[in-house]
Amino acid sequence: MRILVLGAGALGGYFGGRLLQAGAEVTFLVRPRRAEQLARDGLAIESPFGALHQKVETLAEARPGFDLVLLTCKAYDLDAAIAAIRPAMGPGTAVLPVLNGLSHVATLEAAFGRGAVLGGLAKIQATLAPDGTVRHLNDWRWLTFGELDGSLSPRVQALAALASQAPGVVAEAVPDIMDRMWEKLVHLGTSAIGTVLMRASTGEIARAPGGIAFMETVLARNAAIAAAEGHPVRESFLKEIGAVFADPKGGYTTSMLRDLEAGGRTEAEHILGFLLQAAQAAGVPEEIHAAALLHARAYEQRREAGRLPR
Ligand SMILES: NC(=O)C1=CN([C@@H]2O[C@H](COP(=O)(O)OP(=O)(O)OC[C@H]3O[C@@H](n4cnc5c(N)ncnc54)[C@H](OP(=O)(O)O)[C@@H]3O)[C@@H](O)[C@H]2O)C=CC1
Ligand SMILES: CC(C)(CO)C(=O)C(=O)O
């Protein structure tokens, strides 16, 4: 399978590198700074499932000839990323976004047509270190995808078969990808609201008096939003993720907290803004969502003013 990976950040670097190890023809579409770093140092992954260090193919501009485009930008880069991959989107090319959130799916469908777009999500904790190394931070390694019409098409089955050969990846093609993406949004939305508002890991929140009850409240509200949108989450998921949030030993954080702590842009509008609007539409109490979004927006003001602490 010929795969073009837009971006070689945390997820693009990790899954692109792993698919290369599985035998796919992988090319990275990257901007100049990352292109230079990859040309000089190769792609480096550090992971509990084995390291990778190898030279990779990069492109500065997309061209036709790919079966799949793996889209791994942040939500705030979506429009530029769509323009960048457009030349690669031939009649048989599928695009698989692994961004958190949901609204990018409709944006991609408007850009490329419904048949070209897959749903997808990644449950992993990874980060791109300043030296260009992709650091995989725990044992989460799930890549889940599917057709928006629910069919288990040859292309999603082929991708699942390929990715199952990759070390450090558990890949699954599913018939209910929009339900799964909502579930992921409930998961991420809850952990992002908690970790960003408290500037702490889930274990640190759980050890603080009242922390577990706070996370339970946010989880229940996000689950109510998903149900009101017609995508109720599974009981087994609520139990599993509730236990993660209640674990006082947990060291689990979110990409949004890592971005904030690094002084970078966040996906707050795409995740927290979306959830706040959905809470309002569903009549779910909204004050915690509003406070988390306001916190992220105030941080953004401070960041833009160059007043973040060094
Ligand atoms: N990190 C994690 O643990 C998880 C992240 N996610 C989600 O996955 C998505 C990606 O996150 P993550 O991998 O952490 O983000 P990163 O910032 O690490 O990587 C995104 C990469 O996309 C590149 N990029 C953006 N626009 C373009 C473009 N037009 N052309 C070429 N490259 C481009 C950026 O390159 P440049 O360096 O040039 O800016 C950057 O390297 C987000 O939606 C996130 O919420 C989901 C689950 C877990
Ligand atoms: C849910 C979580 C925290 C891990 O997959 C995530 O998606 C993120 O950090 O962006």
Automatic annotation (TrEMBL):
<dbReference type="GO" id="GO:0008677">
    <property type="term" value="F:2-dehydropantoate 2-reductase activity"/>
</dbReference>
<feature type="domain" description="Ketopantoate reductase N-terminal">
    <location>
        <begin position="3"/>
        <end position="149"/>
    </location>
</feature>
<dbReference type="InterPro" id="IPR013752">
    <property type="entry name" value="KPA_reductase"/>
</dbReference>
<keyword id="KW-0566">Pantothenate biosynthesis</keyword>
<comment type="pathway">
    <text>Cofactor biosynthesis; (R)-pantothenate biosynthesis; (R)-pantoate from 3-methyl-2-oxobutanoate: step 2/2.</text>
</comment>
<keyword id="KW-0521">NADP</keyword>
<dbReference type="Pfam" id="PF08546">
    <property type="entry name" value="ApbA_C"/>
</dbReference>
<dbReference type="GO" id="GO:0005737">
    <property type="term" value="C:cytoplasm"/>
</dbReference>
<dbReference type="InterPro" id="IPR003710">
    <property type="entry name" value="ApbA"/>
</dbReference>
<comment type="similarity">
    <text>Belongs to the ketopantoate reductase family.</text>
</comment>
<comment type="function">
    <text>Catalyzes the NADPH-dependent reduction of ketopantoate into pantoic acid.</text>
</comment>
<dbReference type="GO" id="GO:0015940">
    <property type="term" value="P:pantothenate biosynthetic process"/>
</dbReference>
<dbReference type="InterPro" id="IPR013328">
    <property type="entry name" value="6PGD_dom2"/>
</dbReference>
<dbReference type="InterPro" id="IPR051402">
    <property type="entry name" value="KPR-Related"/>
</dbReference>
<protein>
    <recommendedName>
        <fullName>2-dehydropantoate 2-reductase</fullName>
        <ecNumber>1.1.1.169</ecNumber>
    </recommendedName>
</protein>
<keyword id="KW-0560">Oxidoreductase</keyword>
<feature type="domain" description="Ketopantoate reductase C-terminal">
    <location>
        <begin position="176"/>
        <end position="291"/>
    </location>
</feature>
<dbReference type="InterPro" id="IPR036291">
    <property type="entry name" value="NAD(P)-bd_dom_sf"/>
</dbReference>
<dbReference type="InterPro" id="IPR013332">
    <property type="entry name" value="KPR_N"/>
</dbReference>
<dbReference type="Pfam" id="PF02558">
    <property type="entry name" value="ApbA"/>
</dbReference>
<dbReference type="InterPro" id="IPR008927">
    <property type="entry name" value="6-PGluconate_DH-like_C_sf"/>
</dbReference>
